[in-house]
What we know:
With 266 residues, the protein is α+β, with helices and mostly antiparallel strands. Helix content is 29%, strand content 26%.
Amino acid sequence: MTPLIEPNTGFKFDNVKRNQLLSDKGYMTPTATKTGTTIVGLLYKDGVVLGADTRATSGPIVADKNCRKIHYLAPNMYCCGAGTAADTDYTTNMVGSQLALHALNTGREARVVTAMTKLKQYLFRYQGHVGAALILGGVDVTGPHLFTIHPHGSTDKLPYVTMGSGSLNAMSVFESSWRPNLTRDEAVEMVKDAIEAGIFNDLGSGSNVDVCVITKDNVEYICGHSQPNERVAKEQSYRFAAGTTEFIGSKAGAQAGGAAAMDVSA
Length: 266
């Protein structure tokens, strides 16, 4: 008799049974990791401007206040990353090394569409399990280009884009203000306003605004272009005089197991 072999194709519901078992035993069931970021990009008269906030979170905790989310890919292109920080770092580093080899083998500068193709093919292979949502911007022999690459591998080519948990707040700035043939200063100011909209209205975004301006002959990476949450001097002192809080007793409660209470009197 031929043994029954479970096929590797189709839907599987093994995790449903696992989650039900964990729930029955009183354990918390696994949930999707929540991430937060605001990243944006737009085309202007002479090139591309990318922007990102600098807050990295670990659940409800701010893990890093100055996380760089605009990653180097090649001398003529950079990539903003939202999602799982390790995934965005690894993915951009890997594709950046492939682009360097491509440039050495061909003897010419890599095109932005080449980087986009490599990124989307890699992400599509993992069907969204690599948590990297990317905005790719650069300038090559065919002109300035701006792409979004979603974790599942789908892509968009648009004149202005946003991604991350603060993307809707940032998009409201672009939808109301963007126009063709912006100047450099107008583009940088609009990117700053879009990122600050995410910082002020999305808990997953915060800290400072990083900006990267890419033109045909130059790249300008501006760390801390805007610091909307800079600390200021407190308006008053929050020190309280001794005795402000009423002291109820001098002995702690009985310890577990019936042990005698600890004497804390000085």
